[in-house]
């Protein structure tokens, strides 16, 4: 099942050096989930050949402009381009007021249902679940209420044992049934229980999105062992005082979090406008945790 | 005195084909006046090497998203980049509510004074005047209240007559005084009045910005003879019914308006997403009025 993340923007606060404010597109089983929607997100989607109309779910972490100012434009374009299927928007309750006011003054009556699901930033919640994935909030520590999101795929089916397939000459059309737990009767009439013919499924894959936040250890158990952790790394560690003052994290702290949480891979982003060259941030995070990448625009990460 | 217009965006409704929604930057005597501010305007300013902090005046025509959704982001970036000098924003009264609500929820207290001047779309007003320019609203005919803006430079000083300069050997340092109306005493003690030594100043140059509007003849006298008219041309004339239904103008109508208003040059823009190639719109407007140009992004037009 496809589970991959494309970076649409990774600048903090202001767009700069051709870097756009935060937005990410998660493709889960060919369905699109948008995470944050900074100004220019719809232009970025076009730039990378990603169809906005395929987005069915939008998650907004908090109400700093660099994380949501592209939302009204994106929804307006969906409307003008003839969308009829519903969209689900998850975000702080005040986001609904912002949307309502702007659609009211522009006299826009959206042609598609906008389902709004308010989040709260006090206690982690399961906020969404379908056959592919469940989504929980992560309570971040920022100047205003802010949540991250953890996407966990549903448990996979067990794997068929290829030694048994060979031994019993199990036809292709039976294998899916066996994975789903049905017993198999071989050509001699012997019944084999599914458990004998399969090995346990892999752990379900997961992605945790943490932006923006002060370096915080309270949610470490929640992100433990995720396949991919995106964590903001606004500053280098020599700017720790500034990071703390503005409720942000340094690259070194992000590396330390990834290490302690024993994640598989770390992705850093939300880069301050003071850094034109991002490699020093990457190198700093690597001092603590080896498997790190920069959240560069247009780059796609398969979540393995 | 510099009087030139740079196009930052000229797409209608939705960004497409690398075209951004509407925004224009007017440079009057090295001061920046921003006209409309669609999503991505701050990115466009950066792209074309224009410093956002030099903008002191912002004019918003109406509250359709493609004309103002970039404003909160632009103001936020000015704030984060340390602006302290005031900014003047002119636009519909509801724009202030939109700004206030978004700054409230993001807990942003702007570090610079934002002076808001509400416009009304019922009757043309003189809304601003300084030593360089006066700005009047143009009452447009759109689905929601919408004003254009007419920028008229202040009258220039009269021109010194070069034949008199030669005849009377007028030194350079006296010429500016004569232009300002002071009499000149020549080397024989004869007094010459300024009127004898000068010829009348050129007509003050002007720029009229008309977007978005149904083709409307009520403001033709107000835009008569302007040096540059920007008029929206959302559709080709074969889409007249659609233009009327959506309160927009066709390229042919824009040409006809320019002709009847006897403007010096016409600039067309606000192109529908249905046109990848814009030349047919240009050719259509030229059927009615010869001196037409397309409002292409990044292009600068000197207003002569």
Structure overview:
2 copies of one chain form a homodimer. The first copy, chain A, is α/β, with parallel strands linked by helices and 304 residues long. Chain A folds into 2 domains: 3-156 and 202-302, Ribonuclease Z/Hydroxyacylglutathione hydrolase-like (Metallo-beta-lactamase, Chain A, 4-Layer Sandwich); 159-199, no CATH class. Chain A is 25% helix and 27% strand. Chain A has 10 helices and 18 strands. Chain A has helices spanning 41-47, 71-80, 93-105, 162-168, 172-179, 194-197, 220-223, 240-245, 251-260, 279-286, and strands at 3-9, 23-28, 31-37, 55-59, 87-91, 114-118, 126-129, 133-139, 147-153, 159-160, 184-185, 191-192, 198-199, 206-210, 228-232, 265-269, 292-294, 300-302. In chain A, the strands form 4 sheets. In chain A, strands 6-5-4-3-2-1-18 form a 7-stranded mixed sheet. In chain A, strand 2 and strand 3 form a beta hairpin. In chain A, helix 9 (251-260) packs parallel to helix 10. The A-B interface holds A 13-16, 20-21, 39-40, 42-43, 46, 63-66, 69-70, 72-73, 76-77, 80-81, 92, 94, 97-98, 101-102, 105-108, 143-144 and B 13-16, 20-21, 39-40, 42-43, 46, 63-66, 69-70, 72-73, 76-77, 80-81, 92, 94, 97-98, 101-102, 105-108, 143-144.
Task: Give the gist of this structure.
Chain A is of the alpha/beta class and 304 residues long.
What are the key terms here?
2 domains; 304 residues; seven-stranded mixed β-sheet; globular; 10 helices; Metallo-beta-lactamase, Chain A
Largest sheet of chain A: 7 strands, mixed
Shape of chain A: globular
CATH superfamily (homologous) name of the largest domain in chain A = Ribonuclease Z/Hydroxyacylglutathione hydrolase-like
Strand order of the largest sheet of chain A: 6-5-4-3-2-1-18
């Amino acid at each position: 099942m496809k589970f991959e993340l494309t970076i649409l923007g990774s600048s903090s606060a202001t767009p700069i050096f051709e870097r756009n404010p935060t937005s990410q597109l998660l493709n889960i089983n060919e369905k699109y989930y948008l995470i944050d929607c900074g100004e220019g997100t719809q232009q970025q989607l076009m730039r990378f050949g990603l169809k906005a109309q395929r987005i069915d779910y939008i998650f907004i972490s908090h109400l700093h402009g660099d994380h949501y100012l592209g939302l009204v434009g994106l929804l307006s374009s969906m409307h003008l381009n003839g969308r009829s299927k519903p969209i689900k928007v998850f975000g702080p309750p005040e986001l609904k007021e912002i949307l309502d006011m702007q659609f009211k003054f522009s006299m826009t009556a959206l042609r598609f249902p906008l389902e709004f699901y308010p989040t709260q930033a006090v206690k982690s919640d399961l906020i969404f679940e379908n056959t592919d994935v469940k989504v929980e909030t992560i309570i971040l520590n920022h100047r205003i209420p802010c949540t991250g999101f953890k996407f966990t795929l549903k448990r996979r089916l067990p794997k068929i044992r290829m030694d048994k397939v060979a031994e019993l000459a199990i036809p292709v059309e039976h294998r899916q049934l066996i994975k789903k737990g049905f017993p198999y009767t071989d050509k001699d009439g012997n019944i084999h229980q599914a458990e004998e013919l399969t090995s346990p499924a892999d752990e379900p894959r997961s992605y945790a999105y943490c932006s923006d936040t002060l370096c915080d250890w309270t949610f470490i158990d929640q992100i433990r062992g995720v396949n991919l952790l995106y964590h903001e790394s606004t500053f280098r560690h020599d700017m720790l005082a500034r990071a703390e003052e503005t409720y942000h994290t340094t690259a070194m702290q992000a590396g330390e979090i990834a290490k302690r949480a024993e994640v598989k891979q770390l992705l850093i982003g939300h880069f301050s406008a003071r850094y034109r060259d991002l490699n020093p941030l990457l190198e700093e995070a690597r001092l603590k945790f080896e498997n790190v990448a920069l959240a560069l625009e247009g780059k796609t990460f398969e979540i393995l």
